[in-house]
Structures are given as structure tokens and as C-alpha cells.
Amino acid sequence: MTLREACGVAGAWGGDDPAVLVRSMLIALQHRGQEAAGIAVMDQGRLIKRVGPGTVPEAFPDERLPRGAGSLGHVRYATSGNGREGGQPIIVGDSDGPGRPVAVAHNGTLVEPHASARELGVAVPDELTDTEVMARLLHAAMADGLRSLPTAAREALPELVGAYSMVLSDGERLIGVRDPQGFHPLCLGKLGETWLLASEPAAVRAVGGAPVRDLGPGELLEVSAHGVQSDRLPGAGTRTARCLFEYVYFARTDSEFGGLDVYEARHRAGRALGQDAPPPGDAVVVAAPETARVAADGYAFETGLPIVQGLVRHPGAGRSFITRGQAAREHAIRRKLAAVHAAVAGRNVVLVDDSIVRGTTMSSLVEMLREAGAREVHVRIASPPYRWPCFYGMDTGRRAELLAANVSLDELDARLGCDSLAFLTLDRLLNAVGGDPAEYCNACFTGRYPTDVPVAARETS
Ligand SMILES: O=P(O)(O)OC[C@H]1O[C@H](OP(=O)(O)OP(=O)(O)O)[C@H](O)[C@@H]1O
Ligand SMILES: NC(=O)CC[C@H](N)C(=O)O
Ligand code: SF4
Ligand SMILES: [Mg+2]
């Protein structure tokens, strides 16, 4: 299977050709969404948009993008509406009409945004996505140009519940903003005279820029011809809930958030797994490509076992979790991964993955390793069982889809067809990541949601 990730956003202001930098940063963020890609360019108060289905090269094959003072963009993994057709940025308002337009590129998911909008008296049809609702709210709060976009954002955003790391524009400025709980990351960077915003610092480095700092929870940062200005939304940081799953799966291994390296977190998690759940005898370690490679290295380091390339990944294949539809995810795994007979035949294998969500990946991999002649297959997972839907940016909205929510731990190994199975505990994972454990969202592992969530979340189907 493939998990759907959390979307990637990027923005650039200043310099020769900010849209080209945004395009390159989006390619560096492609692991966060593969369903659609889009860019908006700010040109003398106007917003010009290009959006298309698929990956960045599919959406912008010819690289010819309009020039302007600034640009923002998005790679989408939909948590709402239609993935390929609902590309962002979303633009509301007309560049040539009265007032100002607003462009929104959003990472995260809002919890019941239609209800919030209706309470504010803004009409929003049911079929709008969460991002479209937010764009309409922002546009309404700008009151036909009577209020600036930063003022409108300070007024409208605190009325919404959920996760948003976003880049916004009204054609004359670039804004980066994170929800007050700081679920998903957003980073500020600089390249010469150009200010950069990106979901991950690895994307800033990918264009030759230098990360400056993370935006804080609830920070609203404005970049314009008048320079850079930082402000805070009401309620900023009163209860921080950074997504723990960013460290497990979403983020690139070469990113860091809040000074904590994703690589170190994954390596430490693998080492802890090696201490808590060593193999039952002689074995070789095999990583489930791609994200689990570092955790598998940590496991092998701790146990002293050799790590072998027992599974290889087709170079062009993307992430399978973020593929839409169960049958498509299963095919994606068979197309993407293959077992290496020469590395595993006749051996006991410890197969390390970062997570089990729907269980699609693990069932296929155990089967492939057995087909390739592995004697025993012992599965080790570098995070706790994923049992609760995420309402903040991951497309796991129903408990019925989540393997560990529906099958007891005792039955799971039989279901996956492996000889033994062990997960990392939450305490060990938090310790591996570092920082204050109280400042993370861990709802998908514990069911303890940091916001109100729909009652259906508590149900098993
Ligand atoms: O239990 P599941 O529902 O299958 O989800 C978990 C799997 O999905 C992800 O891999 P993915 O193929 O998306 O990306 P990767 O290549 O970065 O590991 C994750 O790394 C796990 O391997
Ligand atoms: N994965 C995300 O961050 C999704 C953003 C937004 N909720 C959408 O559906 O497009
Ligand atoms: S529920 Fe899980 S995936 Fe969703 S924001 Fe919280 S930690 Fe991240
Ligand atoms: Mg994987």
C-alpha cells in the first residue's frame, strides 16, 4: 500500500525567478504528495496559476512558468475531495475585480471546517474541500480589500480547528503560517536575495538555499517588498501538538525540525527496537524500502546482525501509501518492490519497516520474501501499532481501514504470515525523537486527540 502523506508547500519571494525555485522545491517535496501539483505566481498584484494532475514533472512538463516578484506552490496528497482534480493552490477572488484575490497552498486537514464557516456566516457548499473552505473564509475576511490578508488571516484562522501549515498570497506578499498547535512543519530559508518557505528544510537545501529557522506554532510570517515581518495568531503554542508521524514516515531523512534530526530519530528508533525485540536466533536484517532504511540500519547496528539488500525498489516508483485505492496500492507495491533471492534464500530474515497502517505493504513483503526462499520472516516495526484515524493531514479517516485497530496483536502475525512480530513502544519512540514528549500529537497511536474530533473517530467502522 502506500500511505498518503501530508502534502508539501513551498514559496519564494524576491530574486530573478522565484517560480523556478518553487518548482524545484516541490520536486524535493514530492514524497509528500503525488496526486497533483500547482504553482501561483505573484505579478504586480495579480495571481497567475498553473496546476495539473500527477507529479511536478507531469504537471509542469515544459518548465515554462510565468515570472513575478514571488511564487508559491503545492504537491498534493488529498485528504478531502478528489486528489488529481483538486490541485492547489486554491485561488478565490479575481485579480482584475474589486478587492484582492487570495491563493492558498495547504498542508494539513481541518476538522469539520464547513461547520466553522457556517458559524461565521460564510456560505460553503458541502462539496468544497477543507482548503477551499479556508480560502473562502480568508477571502470573506478580506472584505473586498478593506482588510489586508495578514489581518484577515489573524481574524479567520483562529476560528478553525485542525492542522494547517500554509503558504498564502494576495498577489503582493507571500505569507507562511502554521496552526497554533504546529502539527506540521514549515521552514524559512534564504538563497541570496530570495526568501524561501518550504515544508521541510531539505527542500530549501535542494535549491542551494540555507534554512534559517522553523516557523513556530501559530507564527504568521509575511514577506513583501517591505521586508520580513513575524506575528503570532491568537492561541499560538498554548498546546503544541507536533505530528510524531513526520519523524516516523512523512518527512525526508535529511530534514530536521525543532533542531531534531529525522535521521537520528529513525536510527535511534531502530536501535531501541533491536534492544527490545532482538531476533530469535541467527538472521539477516532486511529494510522495507524506502523510509525504513535508517531504522533497519539502527536495528542491525544494535543487534550486530548483517544487513542485506533482500528487497530492492524500482527507481521510478513513488510511495505506495499515498496511492489512492486499495487495489492500486497492492499493485503499486508489486511494481515497486522485489525480493532478492540470492540475499534471502535459506536464511532467517528480520524485516524492519517504519510502520504498519493498513498492512498492505507488510503482507506483500512477507509473501515476497517467502517466495524468494526465506526460511523464517520476523517482522519488526519502528513505531507503535497505528490504531486511530488521523484528522490532521493523513488520509486514514476510518478505523475500519487500520489493520491494528481490527486485528488483535496476537492474531496479527498470522494475518501477516510472519513467524514473529514486534512494535516499538510509544515511550521508546518519543525518546528516540527527543524533545518534550507532551509537545507531540500521537493520536494515531493512542486515540488521544489534541482537538475535538468527529464522534465517528471513536467507532470501529
Ligand atoms: O501498512 P501500510 O498501509 O502498507 O503502510 C505502511 C507502509 O507505507 C509506507 O511506505 P511507502 O511505500 O508509502 O513509502 P516509502 O517507499 O517511503 O517507504 C510506510 O513506509 C510503510 O512501509
Ligand atoms: N495531505 C494534506 O496536507 C492535504 C491538504 C488538504 N486537506 C487537501 O485535501 O488537499
Ligand atoms: S494523528 Fe498521527 S499522523 Fe495525524 S497528526 Fe497526529 S501523529 Fe501525525
Ligand atoms: Mg515504506
Automatic annotation (TrEMBL):
| Family of this protein | In the C-terminal section; belongs to the purine/pyrimidine phosphoribosyltransferase family.
InterPro entries under this entry?
GATase_2_dom, Ntn_hydrolases_N, PRTase-like, PRTase_dom, PurF
The pathway this protein participates in, as annotated, is:
Purine metabolism; IMP biosynthesis via de novo pathway; N(1)-(5-phospho-D-ribosyl)glycinamide from 5-phospho-alpha-D-ribose 1-diphosphate: step 1/2
Q: Where does Mg(2+) bind?
A: 291, 353-354
Alphabetic keyword roster: 4Fe-4S, Glutamine amidotransferase, Glycosyltransferase, Iron, Iron-sulfur, Magnesium, Metal-binding, Purine biosynthesis, Transferase
**What EC class is this?**
transferase
Cofactor mode of binding and number, as noted: Binds 1 Mg(2+) ion per subunit.
Which positions in this protein are listed as binding [4Fe-4S] cluster? 243, 390, 441, 444
GO molecular function annotation: 4 iron, 4 sulfur cluster binding; amidophosphoribosyltransferase activity; magnesium ion binding
Q: Which reaction does it catalyse?
A: 5-phospho-beta-D-ribosylamine + L-glutamate + diphosphate = 5-phospho-alpha-D-ribose 1-diphosphate + L-glutamine + H2O
Q: What is this protein called?
A: Amidophosphoribosyltransferase
Which species does this protein come from? Actinomadura rudentiformis
Q: In its UniProt record, which GO terms are filed under biological process?
A: 'de novo' IMP biosynthetic process; purine nucleobase biosynthetic process
Q: State the active site.
A: 7
Glutamine amidotransferase type-2 domain residues are 7-226
* PROSITE patterns per the UniProt record, alphabetical: GATASE_TYPE_2 (PS51278)
Its EC number(s):
2.4.2.14
Q: Does the keyword Cytoplasm belong to this entry?
A: no
Question: Could you confirm whether the keyword Magnesium appears in this record?
Answer: yes
